[in-house]
Amino acid sequence: MEHELTSEGKCLYCTQIVPHAQITKHLAAHLAQMQKEDAAKSPETYCHIVVEDGVMFLQLLVKGKASMKKIDTFLKDIWLDCCGHMSGFGHKDFKVSTTHMVMDVFETKVKIYHDYDYGSTTRVFLKGIKNYKLNLKEDIVLLSRNEPLKLICAKCEKHPAANICTVCDWDFFCESCSTQHDKECADFQDYAKMPVVNSPRMGVCGYTGGHIDQQRDGVHQ
d(Cα 89, Cα 114) in Å, to the nearest integer? Predict the structure, then answer.
């Protein structure tokens, strides 16, 4: 998937659609301007954090004094949670606890990972970009998220994919071709039919979508 697809995201502040490769820099310019404007307003530390899995990404602004548990819960709510599996953060050189403060973990701009489900694990990577002094109230702000990927039906090669068959080489099918494949694959009827969703957890376990930003969690149109 990573080699064939590109992604883009909408900026929260100006609503411009920006390519994946440029969205971090684009958002940083907005955040720097906001920091200048908030300089006299008793601002708090906020961390700009990028979460990625190939072409899928989240751009987050997280209060520095918040616990890592806040990010863990957010990731599960928007991208990962299907059956209440365990999750946690990690780094090759040090332990990352959900009780740690966000600004302590990302103080040196380290790259860490987050695992959800220690059976059929989905791993995503988080990188601290820069800290800002901002006058905000929210613990987490979703700055941008990749728009639904342009996945095309593997059978007709014309229409947007709506479902995956998890036993037939993870083929993508549009709604019409899904109906046809349903007649050809007994496993598809039984358990292998999974919806296309805007998440790295797509097609794994019982995942059918998130609870946050649901308007961008569906199929590319």
Answer: 4
DSSP state of 147: P
The pLDDT assigned to 219 comes to 78
Residue 23 near residue 161, CB atoms below 8 Å? no
**Distance between CA atoms of 156 and 150, rounded to whole angstroms?**
15
Residues 6+ apart with CB under 8 A from 37: none
Phi, psi of 63 (to 5 degrees): -60, 130
Residue showing tokens 């909408």: 10
* Residue 161: predicted pLDDT: 95
Mean pLDDT, the chain cut into blocks of 10 residues (221 residues total): 76 98 98 91 92 97 98 98 96 95 90 97 97 95 97 93 90 94 90 95 94 89 71
| Residue spans per domain, the chain | 8-145, 163-216
Q: Are 133 and 99 in contact (CB under 8 A)?
A: no
Of 78, 64, 65, 81, give the one whose Cα is nearest residue 115: 81
Q: Work out the number of other CB atoms within 10 angstroms of the CB of residue 221.
A: 6
- State the pLDDT at residue 5: 87
CATH of 8-145 among 3.20.20.300, 3.10.290.30, 3.40.50.1220, 3.40.50.720:
3.10.290.30
